[in-house]
Amino acid sequence: KIYDDVSDLPGFEYDFVIVGAGAAGNVVANRLTENANFSVLVLEAGVSNEGIIDSSVPFLVENLLSGPASYEWNYTTTPQVGLNNRVVPYPRGDTRNYSMHGTLRRSYQLTFWAAVLHTVSSHPNITFSVNYAMLDGMVYTRGSAEDFDRYAANEKWTPPADNHDTRGEFNPAVHSTDGINSVSLSGFQWPIFQEHVIQATRELPDEFPFNLDFNSGEPLGVGWLQSTIGGGERSSSATSYLAPKFIQRQNLHVLLHAQVSRLVDPQSNAGGVAFGGVEFSQGGSLFTAKPTKEIILSAGSVGTPIILMNSGVGNKTALTALGITSVLDLPSVGQNATEQPGINAGWSVNSMQTVDEITQNATLFNEAFAQWNATHTGPFVNIPVTHIAWTRLDADSPIFQHVMDPSAGPKTPHIEVFVGTGGFAAGATGNFMSAGITVLTPTSRGSVSLQSNNPFDPPLIDLGLLTTDFDLFTAREAIKKAYRFVQAPVWKDYIIAPTIDLLNMTTDALDEFIRNNAGPVGHLVSTAAMSAKDASYGVVNPDLLVKGASGLSIIDASILPFVTSAHTQAAAYVVGERGADLVKQRWK
Ligand SMILES: Cc1cc2nc3c(=O)[nH]c(=O)nc-3n(C[C@H](O)[C@H](O)[C@H](O)COP(=O)(O)OP(=O)(O)OC[C@H]3O[C@@H](n4cnc5c(N)ncnc54)[C@H](O)[C@@H]3O)c2cc1C
Hints:
CATH superfamily of the largest domain: Glucose Oxidase, domain 3
Shape: globular
Distance between the termini: 24 Å
Number of helices: 12
Helix content: 10-25%
Largest sheet: 8 strands, mixed
Number of strands: 24
Bound molecules: flavin-adenine dinucleotide
Strand content: 15-25%
CATH architecture of the largest domain: 2-Layer Sandwich
Structural class: alpha/beta
């Protein structure tokens, strides 16, 4: 059951208390409550996605992130040295504007999906998926087999909303059809643009070969976009793992609007420090939920380290300086923060078949929305991105003379180019195509830390973006790669001109452009990283239990020791599935 008000909760004691109903937390809640003997309470600061139209309509995802009614925690980063000291927003789910949301805002302006998904200066950032797992861009990319040696067969391959013939667009052999979360190809076609992309792969087969399915474990090449969308509607861990058939389980309780401040009542025992409760606030009052078996932190790569540090788990010296009593000295908490930097490129094009026709015309926009509302078909069933190109730096790149290749192996991309129809500059008129360009294997590291001992103060989020030579070099090369893709002969009569000519800039000017315009893409990991049991660094052991603690697990993207060369929601699901199995084994 889902509760909005703490007074409706049946009690305060449960076998498992999970903090965070995000991508991974919902998976864990679902899997643990498969055992009817386990009682589970999920505490989530966010709101329900029910009735929030922008959360259901794939095309409207951007509304969730921008404007006065956005769903985010309103965080910003510290000044980013690698971004010319800019302070960039770092949104996460937020409840404050809930009452304003839920209707289609007519003032909607497309700032191009890459601006949302790959965040640029307008919406750089992020961690969360979202408040209650409803806000990510739905892009579904597993990473390479080298990133992940195994992938849990938990997806449900679903026909696209337009039921078009998908032969040649994916490999059915690498997808499951009976899992929980829907994954599909795009349910709306942009034929002229798509044909150009495919023709470019034929013309540039060495650098940009066609890849039938980039989720096969070998992503290199250009493949058709896959998204967590089913029946033309967002499918997220909130809509799938917490679907009504699961929510009606008697042993599953989800309390929304509940912001966890800290873990309380630490006791030392033979297994390590054990916390007796989880303190949370709702409506200005504090409450404590008690676990009889385990506390599971699934609050994401920002939320999880914050809760640990507010509970006295972290760097002893730093916590003591803030007046927080140290309970467990774990200096790696909040460190090693790894985020991918992204930047956009755009070109004006000689085609009327682009999404700009809809976003720049209120009548067509409203018609498209009406079509979605009536039949879940039409351009709103997807974001207007059609393909992703995954590529590597050239093997003889000079950077490798003094930097070791940070990728997981030779079949793993360093660079992503996300191509779609439409422009990303709000208010621009005309027709465009765009590329969201991402450095997938950054070597820069940042941190999440506390600025005070008040658990409700915003944290200090330093992403450390573009602070290494490798990352800046790769960002430059990634832009050049994107330009090489659009230099395939097929684009000659299609592309008119770049919106900003990044190719003919001097290296210094390009670096300056990157530093002034790049931003985080929302794939933060590693702030509570997993390491070997006897390692002197790291936060959790391979069983996902916190080092030096007992009855305390972390199951979310923060435990990933490296970022996958991909978008990270699939990785979060994998962590959720594996983590739930480990907990079940411990308590069977
Ligand atoms: C704008 C954006 C777009 C993205 N798009 C994509 C995409 O298209 N494809 C993709 O693969 N990945 C995408 N990602 C990344 C993906 O969303 C994350 O990797 C994934 O959600 C991480 O899962 P998680 O379970 O670790 O954390 P989250 O999903 O962030 O879940 C954490 C949950 O904990 C809650 N929480 C945090 N602190 C507290 C607290 N103190 N008390 C109570 N609750 C708390 C949060 O509200 C949240 O619901 C995107 C990220 C962002 C920010």
